[in-house]
Design goal:
By secondary structure, the chain is α+β, with helices and mostly antiparallel strands. It is 48% helix and 19% strand. The strands form 3 sheets. The protein has a 5-stranded antiparallel beta sheet, sandwiched between helices. A hairpin with a 2-residue loop joins β9 and β10. The chain starts with 5 loop residues before the first helix and ends with a helix.
């Protein structure tokens, strides 16, 4: 490979494998004993020093062993990684947990949880983005004197519901008339188009006092009503307990970093949403745009059903078994995609 000799490549791969398995800096004697590199431990030690000068390894001041850098993991993923497909047992575990789920949120929640258990990382997912989905029909249903149920029938086949609060009881005829106006003026548009043009589309609607009162609610709150999936609550997390048991989080400071990460749903939503159209994506340590994620690797795969796209994956320390995890994440995204269809 460009920039590295054959010996450096073999030593680098060995160090990475040792560190992934043990979470301990890899020494030259350990590498010489475990891997058939064909040179002495002294030669391996010199090669490790060369790799350190090139930015692929570093060593803690208290240890003679070396630890891979983010650059080493990136080079490993791009050039050396041999993907391991999920085992039959792992595939069965995922299938058993997901196949009988029907609600999208439940599918994603269980998928993130099972991914976390199988990989020993933190399973993450983001619900589909609805911005480009076409609205086919709206239904308005009175469920209480001060509350209406708004039912979205979307072109993708999905049905979403939200509640709309009203100041006082509105007569059924006015509710039916407003539903008719909404369908006449909004059906066939994407949710993004509706949010940006809602006011002008509804302002001149021919309506009585009761209808106008309800239409004004849609005009004033349309940005929120027609967003469906733009808040931090659309991020689904598995259990952080899987990560908490790993050596990287043995100190109280790192545990606080992990807990802070699980509480920052907005940060995770932004990181995940940026990957909706990217297929399989691996972002390692310092490659993240946000410095709060530099201690982590994020492995994700997008899923799609019609106009709906979302992301599922895992986040964990940069020391992770990439070959196994990438295969599991990709398999899970395809399984979620099939269930959505």
């Amino acid at each position: 490979m460009e920039g590295l000799t054959d010996r450096e490549i073999r030593v680098l791969e060995a160090v990475i494998q040792v560190y992934i398995e043990t979470a301990e800096p890899a020494g030259s004697q350990t590498v010489a004993q475990r891997f058939p590199i064909g040179v002495s431990s002294a030669t391996i030690r010199n090669t490790m020093s060369e790799l350190e000068e090139k930015g692929y390894l570093y060593h803690p001041h208290t240890s003679a062993g070396r630890i891979p850098t983010d650059r080493a993991y990136r080079w490993y993923v791009d050039n050396l990684l041999r993907l391991a497909p999920p085992s039959h047992e792992d595939q069965q575990a995922l299938q058993a947990e997901l196949v009988y789920r029907s609600a999208m949120e439940e599918i994603l929640r269980r998928a993130a949880q099972v991914l976390g258990v199988l990989t020993q990382e933190l399973g993450v997912a983001v619900a589909p983005a609805f911005d480009r989905v076409i609205l086919e029909r709206l239904d308005l249903v009175t469920v209480a004197s001060d509350r209406l149920l708004l039912v979205f029938h979307l072109k993708s086949g999905a049905v979403r519901t939200i509640f709309v609060e009203v100041a006082r009881s509105i007569v059924p005829e006015a509710v039916q008339r407003v539903a008719q106006i909404l369908n006449e003026r909004l059906a066939g548009l994407s949710l993004a188009e509706i949010r940006t043009t809602l006011s002008e589309r509804l302002r001149d609607a021919d309506s009585g006092a009761h209808e106008r009162e309800l239409l004004n609610i849609f005009i004033e709150e349309g940005e929120e009503i027609f967003s469906l999936s733009t808040g931090p609550e659309t991020v689904v997390l598995g259990s952080a307990q899987m990560l908490a048991g790993q050596p990287e989080f043995a100190t109280s400071g790192r545990i606080r970093d992990l807990l802070d990460l699980t509480e920052r749903r907005d940060l995770l939503r932004q990181a995940l949403s940026a990957r909706r159209a990217d297929g399989l994506t691996i972002t390692i340590g310092g490659e993240h745009n946000d410095s709060r994620l530099t201690g982590f690797t994020l492995v994700t795969s997008s899923y799609r059903s019609g106009d709906l796209t979302g992301v599922i994956g895992v986040i964990g320390p940069t020391r992770m078994p990439y070959d196994k995890i990438i295969g599991l994440v990709d398999h899970t995204s395809r399984l979620v995609e099939g269930l959505m269809e």
